[in-house]
Q: What sequence folds into this?
């Protein structure tokens, strides 16, 4: 398969997304419904797809995307190449490469790949891993295709192997470009994304209001610490610590046991994340469809 041919590089798209791209989706018809549906897909048990169950930390999820990316590049997926990429990305340390490879092989997501050099061990993603990511990505497309014609076009052909492979390669390149620009001290959502099940717990908070009320909720919300922990398969202490950190960051104010008021900044940050995701998928959709044309 040839290289992705684009009118822009992944680095150029990452730069654009950090600037004018952030304000260019909200006015589209169906935007509010798309935001709501996107975060609803993260809720337990909806979020418990094969990918979500296995890769419940953002660094694991992104690293799994790079499995597809490295497999499609010269040199393939090896321990040394994955270590170098993880170290360069900053999303996790190079020391995570070996445990990640062992874990992915254990759950049937990677398998040994043929190699001409017996000194180098290579792996490749399995069909099981590809199908798991297809299903997870399709959940996201379902909430975005109505507001983006390129994602709509991609969704209609995502079952084609060539389109899926090209999409995942573009996603790997774009993720690296976005992380190269990422400044952790400027992104408070890291307190969710860098914790196990953190993004699912954030989605739980966003949906704690009245079913027919505004999203994100306005006014006091009520939740069960035990329920949040049980549904997301984490400890109660894990949930309490996350809530305490969210309060310290200014995302909410806890007004009692199981009660809090969400501050508007949390909804604003969540919408920014949604827009970044839309433009990421838009870029990768165009890359995949152009390559597979």
A:
């Amino acid at each position: 398969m040839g290289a992705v041919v684009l009118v822009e590089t992944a680095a150029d798209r990452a730069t654009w997304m950090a600037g004018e791209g952030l304000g260019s989706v909200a006015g589209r018809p169906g935007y509010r419904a798309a935001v709501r549906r996107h975060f609803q897909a993260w809720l337990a048990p909806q979020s418990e797809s094969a990918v979500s169950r296995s890769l419940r930390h953002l660094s694991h999820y992104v690293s799994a995307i790079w499995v597809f990316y490295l497999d499609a590049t010269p040199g393939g997926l090896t321990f040394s190449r994955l270590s170098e990429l993880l170290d360069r990305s900053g999303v996790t340390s190079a020391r995570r490469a070996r445990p990640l490879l062992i874990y992915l092989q254990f759950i049937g997501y990677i398998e040994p790949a043929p190699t001409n050099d017996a000194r180098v061990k290579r792996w490749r993603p399995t069909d099981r891993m590809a199908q798991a990511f297809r299903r997870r990505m399709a959940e996201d497309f379902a909430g975005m295709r109505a507001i983006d014609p390129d994602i709509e076009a991609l969704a209609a052909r995502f079952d084609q192997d060539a389109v899926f492979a090209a999409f995942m390669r573009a996603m790997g390149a774009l993720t690296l470009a976005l992380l190269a620009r990422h400044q952790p001290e400027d992104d408070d959502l890291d307190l969710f994304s860098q914790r196990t099940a953190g993004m699912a717990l954030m989605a739980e908070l966003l949906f704690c209001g009245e079913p027919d009320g505004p999203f994100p909720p306005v006014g006091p919300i009520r939740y069960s610490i035990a329920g949040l922990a049980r549904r997301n398969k984490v400890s109660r202490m894990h949930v309490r610590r996350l809530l305490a950190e969210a309060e310290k960051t200014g995302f909410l104010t806890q007004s009692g046991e199981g009660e809090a008021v969400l501050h508007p900044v949390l909804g604003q940050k969540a919408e920014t994340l949604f827009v970044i995701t839309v433009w990421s998928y838009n870029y990768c959709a165009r890359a995949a469809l152009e390559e597979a044309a």
In short: The beta strands are 77-78, 110-113, 122-125, 220-222, 252-256, 259-262. The domain at 1-53+127-293 is CATH 1.10.10.10 (Arc Repressor Mutant, subunit A). The chain has one domain: 1-53+127-293.
